[in-house]
């Protein structure tokens, strides 16, 4: 489960869940998106606001819950009515979720800052207690930018009488570690991605059919893929199609009148994954 070199960002509409009024059904649909993102090692998901329907807060919360390691979910999210039906969605089982009851030096885990020591501990080698899924909290060394109730990535540096960890950036983790989630305005996001030299792809029934021997031409070091809403295609949602590099069709000759967003995500990522490095 090594991470891939070619970055992948998926942009989905805030109207993803508009087809149902049942929060349980909405949760299951969002869970499908989370599973697809994890299976195909998506690095980030952005929920762009759709004027027709906006449930970006719910989508973001369920996606983040799915991506959070099981042992941290209760501490990070507590009780939340929006998460009432998250038990219906399948676990991701990505490397950050699969931890043992014991840790060893060099192991990387996700942690939750329980308590940051006050000024009276100045001079100590440790600055906070961090829950990393063990019976006793670990001690955090050398921290200057953490706060209580914050989720962080840590590496174990000692397992003697005390378990000591240090904070590390996720970019140093060699394994696929999950995805981050954000909410955006689509046109603003497209301008930002273009300025930072991302390749931007939109999916459409009218797009260019992706052939097996042409997949590489759609992939670059940083790839952003936009999916339309249940009611509108990408080019009906944004006025900035001039920023889109490619418009592709990954389901040619489809047998149904429509393809749902979560279905388009699965089919598109499946095809691009054949050549993604």
Automatic annotation (TrEMBL):
Which keywords are on file for this protein? Methyltransferase, Transferase
The answer to whether the entry has keyword Acetylation is: no
| Pfam families documented for this protein | Methyltrn_RNA_3
Name the Gene Ontology biological process terms: methylation
- A single MF term (Gene Ontology): methyltransferase activity
| Xref: CDD domains | HsC9orf114-like
SUPFAM superfamilies xrefs = alpha/beta knot (SSF75217)
Keyword Ribonucleoprotein among record annotations: no
What is the protein's given name? RNA methyltransferase SPOUT superfamily MTH1
Q: Which organism is it from?
A: Methanonatronarchaeum thermophilum
């Amino acid at each position: 489960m090594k991470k891939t070199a070619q970055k992948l960002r998926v942009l989905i509409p805030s109207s993803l869940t508009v087809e149902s009024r049942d929060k349980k059904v909405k949760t299951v649909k969002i869970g499908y998106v989370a599973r697809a993102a994890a299976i195909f090692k998506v690095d980030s998901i952005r929920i762009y606001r759709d004027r027709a329907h906006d449930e970006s807060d719910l989508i973001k919360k369920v996606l983040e819950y799915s991506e959070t390691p099981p042992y941290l979910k209760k501490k990070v999210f507590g009780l939340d009515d929006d998460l009432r039906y998250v038990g219906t969605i399948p676990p991701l089982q990505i490397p950050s979720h699969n931890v043992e009851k014991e840790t060893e030096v060099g192991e990387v885990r996700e942690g939750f800052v329980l308590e940051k020591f006050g000024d009276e501990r100045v001079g100590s080698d440790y600055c906070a207690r961090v829950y990393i899924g063990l019976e006793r909290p670990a001690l955090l060394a050398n921290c200057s930018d953490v706060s209580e109730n914050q989720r962080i990535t840590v590496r174990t540096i000692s397992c003697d009488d005390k378990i000591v960890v240090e904070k590390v950036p996720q970019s140093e983790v060699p394994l696929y570690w999950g995805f981050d989630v954000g909410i955006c305005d689509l046109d603003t996001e497209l301008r930002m991605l273009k300025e930072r030299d991302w390749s931007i792809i939109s999916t459409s029934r009218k797009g260019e059919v992706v052939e097996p021997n042409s997949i590489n031409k759609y992939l670059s070091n940083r790839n952003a893929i936009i999916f339309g809403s249940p009611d509108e295609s990408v080019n009906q949602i944004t006025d900035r199609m001039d920023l889109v590099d490619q418009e592709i069709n990954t389901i040619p000759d489809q047998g149904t009148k429509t393809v749902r967003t979560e279905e388009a995500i699965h089919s598109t990522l499946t095809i691009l994954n054949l050549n993604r490095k």
